[in-house]
Amino acid sequence: MALTLIHPQFKTLIDNLTNLDSYPVYIPETAKYPAICYSMESVARDVDSNQNGTTISAHVFNVYLVAHEFSEAQLLTQNLISTLDQYSDSSFLLTLVEDVADEYDPDKDVFIKILTVTVRLRE
């Protein structure tokens, strides 16, 4: 079985957990903040998981949460971590928040929280 790209399912998950506008790869200039952008960093198959005819793949996303105030970015990020880390449902075996970093964009005057999220999926 071929690897499955899960961008639509990941967007739905992020949208449902945050109630914020989310965009793949970049945030449009016309977007209202706070907003979320996500990009897939990698997808790989766990070759050892195919023993029972089921393959598990790992999809790594960077999630960028962007807000005008640091405190707002901090609060929204903590809320997202609380709901996303170790989340599972019928689509996703498990989601893990692996890392969080801070950035600031002086050109747009926004604070950015970057989360590295791994999604494990049964294919």
Quick tags:
STM4215-like; 2 helices; 22% helix; five-stranded mixed sheet; 5 strands; 123 residues; alpha+beta
Order of helices and strands: HEEEHEE
| Number of distinct beta strands | 5
Give the termini distance in whole angstroms: 8 Å
CATH topology-level name:
STM4215-like
Structural class: alpha+beta
The CATH architecture category equals 2-Layer Sandwich
Rg of Cα set: 15 Å
Helix content: 10-25%
Strand order of the largest sheet: 1-2-3-5-4
Q: Mind describing the biggest β-sheet?
A: 5 strands, mixed
Counting H and I runs of at least 4 residues, what is the number of helices? 2
How would you explain this protein's 3D organization?
- This protein is α+β, with helices and mostly antiparallel strands and 123 residues long.
- It has a single domain, classed as STM4215-like (2-Layer Sandwich).
- Helices cover 22% and strands 43% of the residues.
- A 5-stranded mixed β-sheet has the order 1-2-3-5-4.
- The longest helix has 15 residues, at 70-84.
- It is elongated and about 50 Å long.
- The N and C termini lie close together (8 Å).
- The mean pLDDT is 92.
